[in-house]
Amino acid sequence: GNSLCGGSDPFTPEGYIASGQSFMVEAVSAGNVNFTNSMRVKEHNTQFYKSSNKKADREKAQKSYTIEGDRIWLNLRENKGAFSQLLIGFFRENTGMTKNATDGVDRMYDGGRLISGNYIDFYSIIEEKPFAIQGRTGLNSEKSIPLGLNSNITGVLTISISHFEGQFSEKPVYLKDNVLGVIHDLKATDYSFEITEPGAYNDRFELICNGDPETEVTLPEENEEEDKEAFFDDSINFNNIQSWMRINVVDNQEISGIEAYDILGRLIIKDVPRSVEYYMYAADIPKGTLLFFKLLMEDGSVRKGKYIRL
User: Fold this and answer.
1) Dihedrals φ, ψ of 57, to 5°?
2) Cα–Cα distance for residue pair 79/53, rounded to 1 Å
3) N or C: which end of the chain has fewer CB within 10 A?
């Protein structure tokens, strides 16, 4: 099945618990947990999770690991050391398991994320529940997997690829930020953003990938001249008036709510105009700053736009 790394400088578990290693068991039902001598093995005693693991020990243990399917490990880090990792694996039929993986919850493939007061928790989402490990059907078409995080701290966080196996070595991997409307190539660079309030963020990110060697991931078409990217609405007007920015929509519909973010996802302003136009004080915003806007209209619709401060 799947295995997840642990610690701030992790390596992939090979499926065995070393002598003296502490661990936790998540029960699927009430009853006794029995450990017997038949479960003991003489080999595979080189992986031990602690902060002082040496690089040579990690590399030695990694050599015995067997690739099973197409898998990717993603890290979430904070610059002071907070860390969390998730794993998503794609499995073709007849992998040797008693049951094939599905895109739903599978006991033999998926592992839930225990949200228990950590600084940060990173997970994928199945049926509105958090999973540290997710096994899915084969990577033979475009996939979009919702990602979530729970943070008890604020500040800049970074999502990156730890490592990958199988078809991921040849295919791009994209992270979609639904707040900023950004689709970012994670294999090119890491993705940093800022959390301004502690809490759960389950609707912001998606992992997009495609395992078909003949096709690429479908990205929104861009037209820089007309500024009509699929994610953004061109019905929003932005006008600079000295130290202010005037915002309205072409059909003069009332703006019930407005939010503005910078490129790191920091909330710049949140207000309830209840007016057909909104004046935003922009003197403190440096010129050249790219801003992302989300407008809630009186009819309940949401419009999104972007604008560079002039």
Assistant:
1) -65, -40
2) 21
3) C
Query: How far, in Å, CA of 67 to CA of 92, rounded?
Result: 13
- Convert the pLDDT of each residue in 35-81 to its tens digit: 888 888 877 666 655 554 555 554 555 444 454 678 999 999 998 89
Sequence-ordered list of residues with C-beta below 8 angstroms from that of 162, at least 6 positions apart, any chain: 5, 10, 73, 74, 75, 85
- 147 vs 234: CA distance, rounded Å: 28
Beta bridge partners of 157: 78, 193
Q: Which of 186, 208, 187, 193 is nearest to 120 (CA)?
A: 193
N- to C-terminal Cα separation, the chain: 53
| Helix boundaries (H) for the chain | 55-62
Q: How many CB atoms lie within 10 A of CB 278?
A: 21
**pLDDT tens digits for 84-126?**
999 999 887 665 554 678 888 887 788 889 888 899 999 999 9
> What letters, b where the CB count within 10 A reaches 16 and e where it falls short, cover 80-100?
eebbbbbbbbbbeeebeeeeb
Of 233, 167, 265, 153, nearest in space to 199 by CA: 153
Q: DSSP labels for 273-297?
A: --BSEEEEE-TTSPTT-EEEEEEEE
Residue 56 CB burial class (10 angstroms; 0-12, 13-18, ≥19): exposed
* Predicted model pTM: 0.66
| Gap between the Cα atoms of 138 and 136, Å rounded | 7
DSSP strands (E only) in 58-104 = 70-78, 83-91
What whole-number distance in Å separates Cα of residue 1 and Cα of residue 133?
Answer: 10
